[in-house]
Amino acid sequence: MGWIGEYVDSIRSLQFRNVLTQMVSLGMIVASALIIWKGLVCVTGSESPVVVVLSGSMEPGFKRGDILFLHMGKDPIRAGEIVVFNIDGREIPIVHRVIKVHERHETGEVDVLTKGDNNFGDDRLLYARGQLWLHQHHIMGRAVGFLPYVGWVTIIMTEKPIIKYVLIGALALLVVTSKE
Amino acid sequence: MTSISDNLNSPSPTANVHVLNINWFQKQRNGNDEVSLTLNISADLQSMFTWNTKQVFVFLAAEYETPENALNQVSLWDGIIPSKEHASFWIQTTNKYRFIDQGSNLVGKDFNLTLHWHVMPKTGKMFADKIVIPGYRLPNDYR
Questions:
Q1: A97 and A17 in a common domain
Q2: Same structural domain for residues A96 and A144?
Q3: Considering CB atoms only, which of B71, B74, B126 is closest to A103?
Q4: Which of A83, A105, B5, B68 fits a 20 to 30 Å CA distance from A62?
Q5: Each residue of A62-86: pLDDT tens digit?
Q6: How many domains does chain A have?
Q7: Chain centroid, CA A171 distance in Å
Q8: Cβ of B80 under 8 Å from any chain A Cβ?
Q9: Are residues A33 and A107 in the same domain?
Q10: Do residue A58 and residue A21 come from a single domain?
């Protein structure tokens, strides 16, 4: 009866190899996504080169769910530019337009005031208590490009996590079951 | 990708700004100068619009240099132009945002008024340009 045992063993090893190959290809996909993201970070000089607009404060220019491409660059901040900034004590970055700039002579340090196109007043109410100006270190990048609607995918996925897990599961299943 | 054709558009905008009145001009309690202006702004930005243009954001900024600051840009007025039909406009207005200096440097100050515009595409690359109108001067005393 030895030949049956051998047969089962060979199938087992075959399956093991298949599973291993599929795990590797899944890893490759994750790794290349990471490479693309980190590459973008390096090229654009912005910590997060792509952001999704979450509020309507820049309507009608940017709507909720639109995607912005950011670029930091070495150029100084100027009035009219749309910047993404972080406020101390707030987690979510804000995308608003610069309306005032005061730049020092020697150091080139800047004082910046922002406002959402669709908001009535400037952003001093959003800033930390007592903060009058944004400085260079608050600013993550300036918007250079624009893609409508695509960001809805991430908004839906963060607000309805089930959809995210279903989607990830389906994708993983697709990768694992796909034959070469 | 769609915005590539935007590069083929060579716009020829025009702008004209008059300071009609200095409404008031004073030093705030904290030592910063503030001035209130009445402005007459006219511009023709129709040539900025292409098939890929969603809107044009336009604003007027006072720009000047002070002993402390290499550049001060203070937005005085802004507006959103939704379509080509609205791109040739004329408006008389007081400054929408407060014209406050960082310090007390505005007496007799020469400054530029610059009309900036930022073109927002339906999709793709955003771009911006400006017309600098030099030769404005604030009064020699508070009023």
A1: no
A2: yes
A3: B71
A4: B5
A5: 888 888 888 887 888 999 999 999 8
A6: 3
A7: 20
A8: yes
A9: no
A10: no
Residues shown for chain A: 180
Of A117, A143, A148, the CB nearest to B80: A117
Contact A146/B at CB under 8 A = yes
Residue to mutate among B6, B32, B75, B96, with most A CBs inside 10 A, is B75
- Complex ipTM tops 0.90: no
- Size of the A and B interface in Cβ pairs below 8 Å: 77
Tokens 């404060």 — which residue? A57
The fold of the B2-137 domain, in CATH, is Immunoglobulin-like (2.60.40)
Residue written as token pair 């515009």: B117
A 10 A CB-CB count for B40 gives 14
Residues of B with Cβ-Cβ distance to A97 under 8 angstroms: 57
Domain holding A65, by residue range, is 50-149
State how beta strands A94-104 and B69-81 pair. antiparallel
Among chain B residues, the shortest Cα distance to A67 is held by B123
pLDDT digits (tens, 9 = 90+) for A155-172: 887 788 888 888 888 888
**What is the phi/psi pair of residue A162, to 5°?**
-60, -45
Residues A86 and A172 in one domain: no
Other residues' Cβ atoms within 10 Å of the Cβ of residue A51: 21
Residues A81 and A136 in one domain: yes
Q: So where are chain B's domains?
A: 2-137
